[in-house]
Amino acid sequence: METAKERIVRVAIPLFAERGYAGTSVADIQRAAGLAPGSGALYKHFRSKQELLAAAIDWHIADFERTSVLLVSALPKDPVAALKIIVEQLIGSLDANAQLIRITLRDLDARPELADKIATHMLGALHDAMRSWLDKAVTDGGLRPHDTQAVAALLFSAISYYPVVDILLGQPPAKVEPDRTIAALVDLLAKGLVAA
């Protein structure tokens, strides 16, 4: 059974994503949570709207850590097939976290400690998983030796650009469909990294 505190956090995330932190009032959050606007009920659970934003980000990070699907050990040995799965999973993960991306890009300039949490616990985890897979694929002989840390960063940047632009502008870069983008990226990576 969802507690009032959990419900407040759950409803705050889409409000912050849609209206922005400044554009979302405490009364808006209370109304969405089924509490009487103006009652101050939110303050029974959070000292401030800022504390609620931090709790919402913590909730998102915990949910991401629970459901993260980029499991290096489960990837196929074929590097091209594994690259395709990695690209698809990362795009899916970014799509699933669209609301948090909106909040991060719009509202966290003034809250670097919250941005750092996202960078460390979500982006850092994805980068580490990619680098781990690249290291393993090099060791197994499927990929040629390369700077796996830099390639993991570049791979994440290339993959994340597509859904972020789609989330922010409502259309993908150059209006190219996701399947074509995934195929092109996997093709480029395979040609550059797969061992001869």
Notable traits:
transcription cis-regulatory region binding, TetR_C_Proteobacteria, DNA-binding, mainly alpha, Tetracycline Repressor, domain 2, 196 residues, TetR/AcrR family transcriptional regulator, 8 helices, 69% helix
Average pLDDT number: 88
CATH architecture assignment: Orthogonal Bundle
Helical fraction: 55-70%
| Sheet of most strands | none
Q: Give the CA-CA distance, first to last residue.
A: 55 Å
Query: What low-confidence regions span 5 or more consecutive residues with pLDDT below 50?
Result: none
Q: State the secondary-structure class.
A: mainly alpha
CATH superfamily placement: Tetracycline Repressor, domain 2
Keywords: DNA-binding
Protein name: TetR/AcrR family transcriptional regulator
GO molecular function: DNA-binding transcription factor activity; transcription cis-regulatory region binding
Organism: Kibdelosporangium aridum
Question: Your description of this structure?
Answer:
With 196 residues, the protein is mainly alpha-helical. It has helices spanning 4-19, 26-32, 49-67, 79-96, 98-107, 112-139, 148-169, 178-193. The model has no long low-confidence stretch (mean pLDDT 88).
